[in-house]
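Worked example 2:
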Amino acid sequence: MTPRTAPTTYRVKSFGCQMNAYDGTRMGELLAAQGLVPAAEGEEGELVVLNTCHIREKAAEKVYSDIGRLVKAGREAGKAPMIAVAGCVAQAEGEEIMARAPAVSMVVGPQAYHRLPEMLGHAVAGRRVTDTEMPAIAKFAALPERRRIAPAAFLTVQEGCDKFCTYCVVPYTRGAEISRPYVDLVREALTLVEAGAKEITLLGQNVSAWCGEDGKGRAVGLAGLIRDLAAIDGLARIRYTTSHPADMDDALIAAHGEVDKLMPFLHLPVQAGSDRVLRAMNRSHTAESYLRLLERFRAARPDIALSGDFIVGFPGETEADFAETLALVEEVGYAQAFSFKYSPRPGTPAATMDGQIAAEIMDDRLQRLQTLLNRDQYAFNRATSGKACEVLVERRGKLPGQWLGKSPWLQSVWFEGDCAIGDIVSVTLGEAGPNSLAGAIIPVS
């Protein structure tokens, strides 16, 4: 490649999980520290970073489609953007991307994006560069301090996974489980609050596996970290995601009943209701042990809202197996949930299993499952109508004077009134829809 003019604007497009959203924000901060500014609304930017997710179906194909679209738009505009591919697809298929997409200047994995400024220098000089090394958590020390953020912020505390579910690429694209040091997390949380955060969501591929030593050298788990973060003045809310049932301990369950700042919301993937399918997935729980675990959380915090993940059409799944998933959903009554058709991920054991399910069968099962999940989400929203709660104001609504925020149960709430982004206001929840609720600010007497 020939040398290029250094870009002055950028856009980071993140796909997939909240971890990717966090990484995308941090990449933007790295680029801003180099003097680049975000592209104007509706514009791509002179540098476009595609921060990819490998979990979804046909993830790699979507990357190449995006690259082709950017190339076409650049040709029509007479100026092609510089393109970087980041995230899990970059990690899994870095060399293939470089071979198939000559328009791509940089490929960087999720553990190496702190070297993005250095890579940009190479790209400007006309050298295409790939960095998919996986150096534990070295990137965090190289990231710039966060000075101004939204009222709801993410804080990555743990990365990687050791569970090796047979359908999942995370152990291969994010590496083994590793926990960031306690002192670093407390320091970053303090910085986030000083920068404007009222709510912090602790992130990890398996966040409940986080462990470390506190400032006095005592071993602590996620519950201990949550309790210590709750002592930060100005931090009003704490959440965490995503967890594995195998790592939900007594201390974390107790924290839900004892730490006021820990929101009454739990996202705990189950994936299937059939024990036979769960064994094939290499999930360590059974449907019964999962249900009993949820009972313990509900006993600790009776108003807790439950969320989960489901995969339909896993290889070998029978109609009877799927019926057990529907039965589990009926028993739990999820406030929210995510559900997907099984999609083979290259390199995972499930991709070569016998009994791959036909697309039309998966489509039918997903539709039936989502009908139940949507019903239960709507029912949960209706059940909270009339309740008074606090809402964190996160942004303006579409209409003049309208505001949008989140309830303690992670519901989207819209309302009108005299407030500002970052305020926490008392609201009476009103009319409930399938995906949000109306609210009315409670006047201060």
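Residues 276-281+292-384 form a domain with the Transcription Regulator spoIIAA fold (CATH 3.30.750.200). The chain has a mean pLDDT of 93.
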